[in-house]
Amino acid sequence: xxxxxxxxxLSRQHQHALALCVRLNRALESxxxxxxxxxxxxxxxxxxxxxxxxxxxxxxxxxxxxxFSELRGLVQELLGEHENLRKLFARAAARExxxxxxxxxxxxLALHIRKEERELFEGMQKHMNADELNALGQAxxxxxxxxxxxxxxxxSGPQQS
Length: 161
Prior knowledge:
Blueprint: H1 8-30, H2 35-65, H3 69-93, H4 99-127, H5 130-143, H6 146-155
Helix pairs in contact: 1-2, 1-4, 1-6, 2-3, 2-4, 2-5, 3-4
């Protein structure tokens, strides 16, 4: 299913995080990995984008999804995954991860993102009408970092000055 434009900023952030997972996996496979450098990048990515992304999902997206009985259990799962991922991000920030820990982090983050894209967003698009999705999009514009919204606006067409 094509992603609704109102969820697209979150999907773009998902793409950034998945790219991090792919690069991390490749580095781990090469057996030539600087653990400190990777943990610093993971911590930086969390501070720059993912912390705000999680907050927006928890404040705006998850409550909307939880209105639908078919999505309530999934929302609870995703909230638990956010909690576990925050712990992994904190371990990276504290430089407490070894190669196995980095591999676990990359796998858990990628699985979480795919679950949100394939199950949560698809379910929301199925159950929510256009007005509800537009209201959610407006809420996300207020919550997400300005850079994400600027990308969204630029991709939706020319702006008046």
